[in-house]
Amino acid sequence: MSNNEDSSTAETSYRNWLAFGLTGVSIGGVIALSITIIIKGGEPDKVLTAVLPLLGVWVGTVLAYYFSKENFEAANRSVREMAKQLTPMEKLMSIPVKSKMIPRSEMMLLNITPDKTEDTIKINDDILKVLEEKKRNRLPILDKNNHPKYMIHRSMIDKYLTRKIVKDKMSLSEVEDLTLRKLLEDDAELKRIFENGFAIVKADANLGDAKIEMESESNCQDIFVTINGTKNEPVIGWITNLIITENAKL
Known about the structure:
This protein is an alpha/beta fold. It has helices spanning 3-39, 44-84, 88-93, 97-100, 123-134, 154-166, 172-176, 180-186, 188-196, 207-215, 241-247; strands spanning 102-103, 110-111, 138-142, 148-153, 199-202, 222-226, 237-240.
């Protein structure tokens, strides 16, 4: 038995003893007082009039304490049981995305700029090495205005490079020179996934909304958060499938 169960059992035993003990002592004391008054020559009617209210107050006080405590604990148990019956989606619907998202200031990301475009971003140096150093598997790429552009997955990059080496017989030096533009032109499916493999929710959405949006897109594991929930505005945060899964636990 756990310490909490031992404590609960001890408290219940103590309250039972207190309730019955006080009631017994109160009744015994009132009876003894009544007998004493009668022996001393008191009138029985007056004794009953004086003693019965006193007895009622004592017993009522004890019972009120005893049963109010029991009712409070019963209500608490009921609330706990109801909480356990929440579904994962109901829990997610109660959590604002702003409270769980990764803010843009804390995101590991890459920005497309006039000096850093798809033509100059190297897969090996600018993507894989960064992911390796940070021990990450996904890299959001935003445009110069911080609008969502791509969501890069390391596993898909690895498959692409393996195919270039094995099937296309590329040398390691040639692979190191591959750019993001070359990848997007070589593989239409990867281009589609990187460009559309994420969803968008507005800033006042909840994690339930994010889950629904994520499941509406194929190969989607990421949600960008923008003020109005559109692609044509700056990203303010990022929700991953792992964040949603963790917060859906009951």
